[in-house]
Amino acid sequence: HKCEHAGLIKKVKALERDYLSGKTGIAEDVMKLLQQWLRHHIMKTDNQYSSHLVQNGVR
Q1: Domain parsing of the chain, residue ranges
Q2: Partner of 18 for a Cys bridge, out of 10, 23, 27, 52, CB 3.0 to 4.6 A?
Q3: CA distance 55 to 59
Q4: Coil, strand or helix at 23
Q5: What is the pTM of this model?
Q6: How far apart are the first and last CA of the chain?
């Protein structure tokens, strides 16, 4: 789980470097990254954690 977050941070930093270097089209890259993150990480990985937490009485 931590590796996935570290990977996201790495990708965001790469996008930041691209932006600061003057690369165009960054907005589309950011949207793609966020959509992928929402679909994969939040809807799948985090959802698996929430089920486990609820089963163990965490609210």
Answers
A1: 2-55
A2: 23
A3: 10
A4: coil
A5: 0.72
A6: 20
